[in-house]
TrEMBL record:
Active site: H188
The entry's keywords: NAD, Oxidoreductase, Tricarboxylic acid cycle
EC number, as in UniProt: 1.1.1.37
Family matches, as PANTHER family: MALATE DEHYDROGENASE (PTHR23382)
CDD domains linked: MDH_cytoplasmic_cytosolic
Catalysis performed (reactions): (S)-malate + NAD(+) = oxaloacetate + NADH + H(+)
One Pfam family, short name: Ldh_1_N
Lactate/malate dehydrogenase N-terminal domain: residues covered: 7-153
Chain residues that bind substrate: R93, R99, N132, R163
Name of the protein in question: Malate dehydrogenase
Length: 332
């Protein structure tokens, strides 16, 4: 029997990431090749014509899984009964800016949209915040949508996770699909900590540790980390626009694994509300290694954290604490 359609909200749908992600969702990259979807597209009035154009193109593409498109500038209409909300609406940074530099513009959007989601989305709606500063926007969204369960509000660090997989794959000249279990700890910012201490590569002789195969701790502790931390800025420098294709694809990966589950023995990175695991203070949205099953994520427990990692985990937590107070000062 055909499945009922799932309603997916995409905010900022007339923007770069929005334009890239809608066709991915309509092709089944987010929810599976047999899952019909209805797209709810939200943007603001100045982008209303462009949004209309996106809807026209979705119709023209005749996607078999796409059962309807609601394209609107009305946040209430956009949020009505949605099961998944991908929150991309906001302002991107330009060259030379840090992601927190878009804080004052973007956190107020998340405060305003929180209550529309709370009142009008499906009660079990899963929320992914993409717009920067992603962790802090997710925190603000939760704060102003208190009835949405904390575990349903997450932010995107899967792009950083995929970037780390990509860097290891390039360095070892192995296919990226054979590399797994890197971790992004902390903030989606230049203080994030890409950690390969538990990462492995599938080889014909079984799974091997990334650290042993790379055999260059200096590179892993320096250039590898900074390349992943600075990749967003490098893309902006090269394209004069921030990452869009890779952000859209990673957002699909995030939701797909959350809803359909992570493969056995594999974890991914998600920005989630800290429960105090690994000594990370509660009260911030922090990227952890997680596995997902039956639509629920859980933080991977019991990983050994060495002294080098400890300092990095703490530094990015500290930045998130500071961002939190900056966000509140922007809202006052
Ligand atoms: N977490 C992550 O890994 C990544 C996050 N980002 C962030 O995603 C966000 C979007 O990036 P792009 O698509 O490149 O930007 P963009 O400027 O191309 O598109 C953003 C869209 O949001 C719309 N918008 C603005 N205010 C809105 C509101 N109140 N409600 C609904 N829509 C609204 C704009 O009209 C625009 O169409 C930025 O904040 C960017 O920094 C980008 C890449 C990766
Ligand atoms: O760097 C930016 O501003 C966009 C972004 O978040 C990324 O590419 O990771």
């Amino acid at each position: 029997m055909a499945k009922n359609p799932i309603r997916v909200l995409v905010t900022g749908a007339a923007g770069q990431i929005g334009y890239a992600i809608v066709s991915m969702i309509a092709r089944g990259a987010m929810l599976g090749p047999d899952q019909p979807v209805i797209l709810h597209l939200l943007d603001i009035e100045p982008a209303a014509e462009a949004l209309k154009g996106v809807k026209m193109e979705l119709i023209d593409a005749a996607f078999p899984l796409l059962k309807g498109v609601v394209a609107t500038t009305d946040v209430v209409e956009a949020c009505q009964d949605v099961n998944i909300a991908v929150m991309i609406g906001g302002f991107p940074r330009n060259e030379g800016m840090e992601r927190k530099d878009v804080m004052s513009k973007n956190v107020s959007i998340y405060k305003a949209q929180a209550s529309a989601l709370e009142k009008h989305a499906a009660p079990d709606c899963k929320v992914l915040v993409v717009a920067n500063p992603a962790n802090t926007n997710a925190l603000i969204l939760k704060e102003f949508a208190p009835s949405i369960p904390e575990k349903n509000i997450t932010c995107l660090t899967r792009l950083d996770h995929n970037r780390a997989l990509g860097q290891i794959s390039e360095r070892l000249d192995v296919h990226v699909g054979n590399v797994k279990n890197v971790i992004i700890w902390g903030n989606h910012s230049s203080t994030q900590y890409p950690d390969v201490n538990h990462a492995t590569v599938a080889t014909c002789d079984g799974e091997k540790s990334v650290r042993e195969l790379v055999a260059d701790d200096h590179w892993l502790k320096t250039e590898f980390i900074t390349t992943v931390q600075q990749r967003g800025a490098a893309i902006i420098k090269a394209r004069k626009l921030s990452s869009a294709l890779s952000a859209a694809s990673s957002a699909c990966d995030h939701i797909r694994d959350w809803v359909l589950g992570t493969p056995k023995g594999t974890w991914v990175s998600m920005g989630v509300h800290s429960d105090g695991s690994y000594g990370v203070p509660p009260g911030i949205v922090y990227s952890f290694p997680v596995t997902c099953e039956k639509g629920e994520w859980s933080i991977v427990q019991g990983l050994k954290i060495d002294e080098f990692s400890r300092a990095k985990l703490d530094a990015t937590a500290q930045e998130l604490i500071e961002e939190k107070s900056l966000a509140y000062s922007c809202l006052n």
